[in-house]
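Checklist before submission:
- one chain only
- standard amino acids only
- sequence pasted in full

Submission:
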Amino acid sequence: MTCFISSSNPYAALVDCLRATWLTGKTRPIEYRRKQLEALGCFLEENRCEILQAVNADMRRCAFEGEMADISLVMNEVNNALNCLHGWMMDECVSKNLATKFRSAIIRKDPYGVVLIISPFNSPFNLTLVPLVGAIAAGNCVIVKPSELSRCSEKLMAEVLPTYLDPETFAVVTGGHEPTARLLENKFDYILYSGNRRVGKVVMSAAAKHLTPLTLELGGKNPCYVDSCCNFQNAANRIVWGKFFNAGQNCTAPDYVICTTDTQDRLIPCLRHAIRCFYGCNPQESPDFARMINDEHFQRVRALIDNGRVAIGGETDECDRYIAPTVLADVKEWEPVMQQEIFGPVLPIFTVAGLEEAIQYINSRDRPLFVYAFSCNHQTVHRVLDCTSSGGFSGNDTLMHMTLVSLPFGGIGCSGFGKYHGRFSFDTFTHQRGSLISTMGFEALNNIRYPPYTESKLQMLKFGTDVRRWNPCTML
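Returned file contents:
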């Protein structure tokens, strides 16, 4: 294989080599894709202990959370892709009009080419490998760029993962902002970035220079509406689990609770009870409660505790990067805790007069990645679903939507665009190529579209190509 170095960029040779491999067609056969997916599954199975140790070293993430988020959910994606790959790859036949009756109209599923996946620190293996499953299944060559903040996880992926996957079609790039910026100078055929909004704009700007399509997963402030008609303890259990999973460093975590003052007063004791049941009287001693990823994030989140009134928690330990599971009551709209994504173990409660004001407040802000709603009234949950806009929605639970490979995952507006997981990952990294294939015969049928044009030819062509309504109705 010949690689052409196109510039002095340190990653140009790598990108060119992967592109040269892709042009040979090596990644297109289903057998090759299956082999790479099976190798990825072997990486997960054979390095289970090392993966759990890495995420624990990075964030003190317990084995339970590491197993669920960074191994089990990724393995589900691998198995689902292996189960469904043949069907996903098949040409899709579409309906035809009378004029194309004797032709073949299909959607061909083509890989984009060389794609780039940039992932964040908070769930390093999940957010790197789940999109990788889709990129491999779609037949692409892939470069992954894990976050440098989760150093142990990055090191494991850089050193071990390439020993399982084909080095001619896959590579890992490591480092911080400078390597990422230089990597983005190269032309890719598709980019998927997960992370914060500020870096998302940088990635989008870099992609624009090459007119590269991309998916952005940017998170946001996910509201959690709690209705006055509610099983408060059940709601509290599910909110506490979803919020403090990985110490709140999770883009799908409930960012804030929105409810009435009376509901706040009834909910807080239930939240306190759930926190104590989950993490004990001193969560710092709990083996199940994670730590902030680094000092910078610790300082940022600790500063948010000064907002509102500390109703639960509030304790911190800088040396341990520990912030207790914290609930803030009576926060104000203008306070910093309500102006930025928290991404830490702090749960503010914002009070409103009722459901309609809650919906109005949610809709007045940037559209979030997720909206959560808790109520014993089925109609209330559906009203929140019907009257708000977000990347996804969950009624009376948190995080469990992430276990379904059948649901798309992705943002809308400022929380990102594009989607992946399951079939949606395959589609994201696939160019759906509309194709019409005709025979060389039946030329007499084509005469109606050739000059010289006549009114009768036009009417016949329109008859053969017009789309008609199935059930026309007359407005009275």
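Reviewer check: The first helix runs from residue 12 to 23.
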